Amino acid sequence: MVKHFSQKLMWMLLAGLLLIAGGMPIFAQAAELIYDEAGLLSSGEAQELEAIAEQYGAEQDVDFLFLTTNSTEGQAIESYMGDFFDNRADSTGQEDAVLLTIDIGGRELYLAGFGTAEQTLDSERVELVLDRIMPEIQAEDYGGAFEDAVVTSSEYMEYRPGVNPESIFLKTWFHLAIALLLAGVIVGSMLYNAGGKVTTTPGTYVDRDHTRVRSQNDRFRNKTVTRRKVPKNKDGGGFGGGGGMTGGGRSFSGGGRSF
């Protein structure tokens, strides 16, 4: 009987372990990343964006967050965004994040970097990300804009802080152009030297002892005036650049645009 009871207990323990391994809700679920209160995304877009945010977030060890609203209820978008992040960070304990907030009612958006992202996605890089996504925002392609915000931010965060990721000196095409230019100079120098040294100059045929300048004058031929139209800014006005501090005392990098 004791043997039978021991076998039964063993099977119960084994069944319990299998249930735990099979995904019983014992551990807390992963924190939500998308807070689409304005309903800008379809369910499919939200699922796809969530997967992309998790993938790149794991690579950079930050949370990529998205917050949309129809109204900030009179608050500046920076304050609204800051209050939201304070509440989330207090409840989840995650301080390292990139947060893109869109206020549809006020036609404004704000991108901020918290924790480690305040350095790896500083305010200058934030402006570069906004430059990239504003055409999609204005076209109301919010899913595309959110995805580009994740991918571009993650790409910029790979560079050492303080480095401009869009610098011409970091572009592959620039390195290729320099290599081709150097190759051309070397080949040209080799061809020039292969033809022998030229010793005659224009002075060879001039008798300087018996040559004089008879006269010299200047003639005014014509005058040309060029007019250039100053282009208008089509990317929306910027505001709130340089980051700031939330009501809960958390500093952040950031920048905003109107659309």
Which keywords apply here?
259 residues; alpha/beta; 44% helix; 14% strand
Number of strands: 7
Rg, Cα atoms, Å: 32 Å
Distance between the first and last residues' Cα = 78 Å
Anisotropy-based shape? elongated
Structural class from helices and strands? alpha/beta
> What's the rounded overall pLDDT mean?
79
Poorly predicted parts: 1-5, 13-30, 170-177, 229-234
Helix content: 40-55%
Strand content: 5-15%
Write the layout of secondary structure elements.
Layout (H helix, E strand, L loop, with lengths): L1 H20 L12 E3 L6 H18 L2 E7 L7 H16 L4 E7 L4 E7 L2 H4 L2 H16 L3 H16 L14 H23 L43 E2 L4 E2 L5 E8 L1
Parallel strand pairs: 1-2, 2-3
Antiparallel strand pairs: 3-4, 4-7, 5-7, 6-7
Helix pairs in contact: 2-6, 5-6
What does this structure look like?
This protein is α/β, with parallel strands linked by helices. Helices cover 44% and strands 14% of the residues. It contains seven helices and seven strands. The chain has helices spanning 2-21, 43-60, 77-92, 117-120, 123-138, 142-157, 172-194, and strands spanning 34-36, 63-69, 97-103, 108-114, 238-239, 244-245, 251-258. Strands 1, 2, 3, 4, 5, 6 and 7 form a seven-stranded mixed sheet that branches. A hairpin with a 5-residue loop joins β6 (244-245) and β7. α2 (43-60) packs parallel to α6 and α5 (123-138) packs antiparallel against α6. Mean pLDDT is 79; it is low at 1-5, 13-30, 170-177 and 229-234.
